[in-house]
Amino acid sequence: MRGIESQEYWSFPAAATAFSSMAFAFVLRWWYFDVAESASTRHVRSRRQAILFQIWHYAHLPMFLGIGIAGVGFQRMISLDGDEHLSRGAGWILCSAVALLTAALIGMGATSEASQRSRGHAWRIAWQVATVIAVGTLGAGAAGMDRVVLVVTLVAIGTVQTMLGRG
Fold this sequence. Notes:
This protein has one domain. Helices cover 76% and strands 0% of the residues. The protein has 8 helices and no strands. The longest helix has 24 residues, at 12-35. It is elongated.
């Protein structure tokens, strides 16, 4: 919302980018609480479970860093003037931050008890990692890309990753 307050009026690209950015935040919330089950009780009864708990615990730092940097990137995209396109660095930083936070969420989801018991666990993680690589590749080509297209693509990729995590 900080990006919108600097606008005198809402252009379509600014409004679409703002609402898509909020949709991305909702996808992250869905993934963190419902798919990765990060708020569920984690029982530590064995050495393996202790290691999984440590992975879950330490994955929060890159996730928080990614959320903070991505928030600044989304704010920058919302506040672009008119039909101004992203610079090479801005697109790369935003996509790298999204890749970092989604990689952390993949790690957290992989440590949940439900994920450990599910069939096809390794294949789902492999597909999720492939989408992280796709986000990084998208960042390399984001220069000159329309901001609405980029944010909607990031929301779509986040939704796909969330659905892959659900199994």
